[in-house]
Known about the structure:
- This protein is mainly alpha-helical.
- 68% of the residues lie in helices and 3% in strands.
- β3 (902-907) and β4 form a beta hairpin.
Amino acid sequence: MIALVLSHFVLAACSAPLVRRLGRYAFLVLALPPAATTAWAATEWGGTESGRAVSWSWEWISTYDVSVALRLDALAELMVLLAAGVGTLVLLYCAYYFTDDSPQLAPFAGNLLAFAGAMLALVLADDLITLYVFWELTTVFSYLLIGHTSQRKQNRRSALQALTVTTTGGLAMLVGFLILGEAAGTYRISAIVAEPPEPTLAVSVAVVLVLCGALSKSAIWPFSLWLPNAMAAPTPVSAYLHAAAMVKAGVYLVARLAPGFADVPVWRPVVLVLGGATMLLGGWRALRLHDLKLVLAYGTVSQLGFLTVLAGAGNRNAALAAVAMILGHALFKAALFLVTGIVDHAAGSRDLRRLSGLGRTMPYVCAVAVLAAASMAALPPFLGFAAKEAAFEALLHGDTADRWVLAVTVVGSVLTFAYTLRFLWGAFARKPGVPDTSAHRVGAGLLAPPAVLAVAGLVLGPGVGWTDRLFAAYADTFPAPAHPYHLALWHGFGTALLLSALTWAGGAVLFAGRTTVTRVSRRVAWPTADSVFGHLLLGLERVALQVTGFVQRGSLSGYLAITLMVMLFGQLAVLAVDHPWEGAVAPRVWDTPLQGAVAALTCAAALSCLTVSRRMKAVVLAGLTGYGAALLFVVQGAPDLALTQFCVETVSMIVFVLVLRRMPVRFEESIGTWRRAMRIPVALVAAATVGVAVWVAGAARVAEPAGAAMVEEVAHHGLKDVVATILVDLRAWDTMGESAVLAAAAIGVTSLIYLHRRGETSLDRGELQGETAWAALSGRRLAGVPEGDDNAPERSWLAAGSTLAPEHRSIVFEVVARLLFHPILVLSLYLLFCAENMPGGGFVAGLVAGLALITRYLAGGRFELAEAAPLQPGLFTGLGLFVSTGVALGGLAEGTVLHAWTYHGHLPVFGDFHLSTSVLFDFGVYLLVLGVVLDIVRALGAKVDRQIERAAGALTPATDTGKGEPQR
Length: 968
């Protein structure tokens, strides 16, 4: 099973070269995975109909009992055949629907096949978390498919709307899954359904949340707005996602959980009321629309409401009718969508007011449409008739609620028959006063997929008994009724047949009076859900704008004050209610007097920040507080933390200085006396509150400290540095997440500087006018600087030192930078590789290497930085993430992500050695941090330098485009 799922994603990743080589016929190759899945599912038919299940699992998160578990039973067998079988036909249809020059064909093909793989995994999933992962994957791929023609605003809006609605429901469903999993003690779906938890309040809430996800996915009212708008997608997407696959996911989830939770008090009211309302509203809306796809779309909404009612009714016969109707609906609705695509493709229009005479122009297409529509209208001898008879019979012999639902279903079926006739009439009939529509010839490749689906609906009508054992294997998971129903085309004359005849007659009457019905429908029409959704979004945007204007005043100090006050009140409320200090060990003032002295100096520097008006003084004082914290780490005996803190503070101060070149010398925000009087107490009280909270947290320890156990565990592996081992082994997941956040933050910051391009092609010395850039900025020699002999030989200590004007050069600094650059790099490598036994690590080593490059920049300018680091910063950042992620995934060979490996070897000269994957992981962190530092220095240093030079006219006109980048 897992091989079939993965094959979809693997081949989807190869869609670009396939389309480039084969053009539209690449769809024929891409149809192989779903075709193979269909064949495999067909071979499993006998086992699943006899009650046997095929299972596969792989332990994913053992601590929380989460596994990637797949299971093929009777219900999954049906859904796999639909997802894979219809998917195969749709992909074959695409090969003849599109042309070789269709825009963005490769991404569309890959997304469609990847969606088929995600849908396959969804219906096979036997774990709640696994199901949720693939559930959201189908949401993402459907978003990409609906927004395929992204140049059109309608496609973008429809895709975003579908993503918003289904993702919101999916998040609610995830919360419900977590509650159910914890209540049941397992996340295995088969186990939960077999032995559901007691229907407590928590379980009832979980059921409602899960139903929110299922109903939003299947476009059940009030979530039905996204499906009609999704018709902006290409027709193959509508035929697959919105007939056989995605919208069936919600119905499938209802059917999957109904055996275990249909007796929960909230289940049936939600499912029956919303499902019945959806059936009526969708069918009624379909009677007044003129776009063939929209007629089918609202018809699909109506049918999904019907399917939800049957799947959630909670009895055996209704469940049997539900799975039969799921199969019938997929066959006839996918065929009709594909026929609509053919009509649009051949005639150039889907407006039923303009189409006329296509029944004679395209007789074979018309015949296919009639076969599929007859099944949708539940006419004998089609599968739709057999399924509808089963539904009427199940609801007829149910309780009072079922009989009310039966009345709604009959009315909904009348509407179904009416809009079915309207579809056929609108697409193929000859209309008075409307000229016959011209249409080009339709090839067999385009017509074959819908013909197969339509004929299947015809064959399975008389042959519905072939599916009875499979469908009964699922239906028998419900309590057995006194008279179990069996699927058959003919059950004799009875009430169910009478109701069917009533629906046919009522539908024919509605169609005959279609003009009056359309007029009345438009007069009594409520505001559309799409309009309500748009007004809600507009209102939300306006409220957000008002709130933003009220809160975001442009004062960073004000933002910080608000943040501190919120934190302060929250902490004080907890302290006042819980009294956590009772029984806590009293805090010590200090361990050594040196701690007190360092702390006093640090506090003095922090308080001094409140009184300064110059930005540079504030930066220096803030940096001193960081250095003071680092000294406290030294005194406390934490060299790893101290080293990291020193490096971070040094880099931060340099970055601040680089930024201050483009900012006023003094703070421009005027602070009144009363505001200052308010801010100082807030800062002091917040600091005191944090201190008390830290003391209380430390004093609340009741278990033995883990430090001794960690030291023992680290020593057991022959290591000495506990901190470094924690970062790259015991808590490597945290390090990976922090590395990704660091990279994202750096990219975001530097992107604000590189408004046009991030390329560093501007680091070409040829763009300078004259001898140097800074000479042009100064305009004259500084007083007291000797003129010197311009012809005298000059010693160059740096590669690009000549680009600086003499008055801006420091020979001592250049010599020091030249002498220290390589030793600092060697020191960074030493800190990297000694981290297992001495203070160091990839993070601090990357910072040290970054400081080496910063030294070269400060000594020689931006061209010197380009000489010292000619490679792009993104290369280091990306390579670091790649190495760390690769090491993490390499642990899967042992069954666990980030599993550590150690290789022991012997070298002739060096002797015995060992190499651990944690060192490679740390090397990735090293590269990432180096790339981040280099990126920030180039953005805030070299880039700002170039802006200053351009403003001073130091760049040649040929290279200055006015956009911050050279013209090439």
